[in-house]
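Ticket #4471: structure export looks truncated?
Reporter: QA, pipeline team
Priority: medium

Steps to reproduce: submit the single chain below to the structure queue and open the exported record.
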Amino acid sequence: MTNATQNSNGTGLSMTDDTEYRIERLRHRLAHGETAELGLRIEARANAVVVYGTVATSECREEIVRLVQEELAGLPVRLDVTVAPAPADAKPRVEEL
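Actual output as written to the record:
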């Protein structure tokens, strides 16, 4: 299988089975991994794979960036993942074990 290539006019992303497989594998890793992140969208557009949405913490965003870099290496990617602001009245969550 081949990676995504440019269209015949030299621009844009041509989808291949490999690209679609890699996107699905990323979705699976995001949903079933440590992040268990279901709120992100991953779309193959004309000139890049776009990953966008909102996550709860900056640590979660960093893990998503790492996974995207691993799974989509070599593909043009636009990452638009933001961290949700904490509510003003939120108190630190403390668990007692």
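Status: closed, not a bug. The export was complete when the record was re-opened. Leaving a note from the reviewer for reference: The longest helix spans residues 17-32.
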